[in-house]
Design brief:
13 strands; Rossmann fold; 6-stranded antiparallel β-sheet; alpha/beta
Length: 355
């Protein structure tokens, strides 16, 4: 078994992930489906030799001490992969995420024009890209940052764990910092960024109270902050952020969030008719009504505000899915499987003549 051949095979098949598990054949995730590759099983010796070759000493120690570690490698053919090595009942396992060589352009992802224009015009505040693991958040974030880099001269700092896409310097000055290598943790990186004169800060993930608090403070001081969360939609994201804080601080955080939040993009990849994955999304744009709901702790009313919004700058997931069905990109069945409110999706489709 050869790791370079596995990586080449994954790229040829358009796989997003390579799964290597002791005593099991390699598996590729292609268009969301996990597919075994042949019958030859991965051996513990193969995995150990691979990790000893690619991991620096501190990550070898982390794997032994913490039983898991994150890393990034580059194949001989120039393919970058984000990896996670971990122990499980059957022994050692590795999952490798294939990072595309080329960063997608923002207008190729399928978002409405208002999303792109709003992002370009931002002078401060927080924009969050949310969704489950493997739903394209990193791709969207990289496309946004590349677009902003090409847009005008500005200073852009990223704090990532680990660095995935390498952002080329264009009009912007870009500095990418990796947690563990260049900075101790996300919070330390955000705090240091206040003294590094950034215009834009990208925080790879809002994982905990300290990171979220520091990111909101950064946005309050006149910077634009982009980040991700593992949440499913806008209202859940707002609740998750507030709930991270102690109860005595939640009123203050609601006020901070109401002021600094600009947009939440919740996305998921759904199976298209042609067998590829295509993007469905919800866009929650923070306006006067949403600000009031956040301040008054009426998050439960935000879905209704999304549904009845007439500004043209909000998109429900069901509206996005309906558009994909109407444009014959996905089947009605697939859309219904991915809808948060299938009955509402049926109503939208019926109004467009699709029973």
């Amino acid at each position: 078994m050869d790791i370079e051949q596995l990586i080449s095979g994954a790229v040829e098949q358009g796989a997003s992930d390579i799964h290597l598990t002791t005593d099991v054949p390699p598996h590729f995730r292609v268009a969301g489906q996990l597919l075994p590759q042949g019958t030859e099983v991965v051996t513990a010796e193969f995995l150990q030799n691979f990790l000893m070759k690619v991991l620096p000493e501190e990550q070898k120690k982390q794997l032994q001490d913490h039983r898991q570690t994150d890393f990034v490698i580059k194949s001989v053919a120039g393919v970058r992969l984000r990896g996670n090595a971990f122990f499980q009942e059957g022994g050692l396992s590795i999952v490798l995420r294939v990072i595309a060589k080329e960063i997608r352009t923002l207008d190729s992802l399928g978002f409405p024009d208002f999303v792109i224009e709003r992002i370009k015009s931002l002078k401060n505040g927080v924009v969050l890209i949310v969704g489950a693991t493997g739903q394209g958040k990193s791709t969207t974030l990289a496309a946004i940052l590349q677009n902003l880099s090409n847009h005008k001269p500005q200073h852009l700092i990223t704090i990532e764990d680990p660095i995935e896409y390498i952002l080329p310097n264009s009009k912007a000055l870009i500095q990418q910092r990796e947690v563990g290598r260049d900075v101790l943790d996300f919070r330390a990186g955000i705090k240091a960024a206040l003294r590094e004169d950034p215009d834009i800060l990208m925080v790879g993930e809002m994982r905990d109270y300290e990171t979220i608090s520091a990111a909101l403070t950064m946005a309050e001081t006149g910077h634009t902050v982009f980040s991700t969360l593992h949440t499913n939609d806008g209202p859940q994201t707002i609740s998750r952020i507030i709930d991270v804080f102690p109860s005595e601080q939640q009123d203050q955080v609601r006020s901070q969030l109401a002021t600094t939040l600009k947009m939440i993009i919740a996305q998921r990849l759904v199976l298209a008719i042609d067998g590829t994955l295509t993007l469905a999304y919800e866009v929650l744009t923070n306006n006067y009504a949403i600000q009031n709901y956040i301040r008054q702790n009426k998050i439960f009313q935000i879905p209704s505000a999304l549904q009845t919004d007439s500004s043209g700058e909000m998109v429900q997931l069901e509206q996005s899915l309906a558009g994909l069905v109407i444009n014959q990109q996905v089947t009605k069945e697939v859309a219904l499987e991915n809808a948060a409110d299938p009955e509402q999706l049926k109503a939208i489709l019926a109004a467009n003549g699709i029973k």
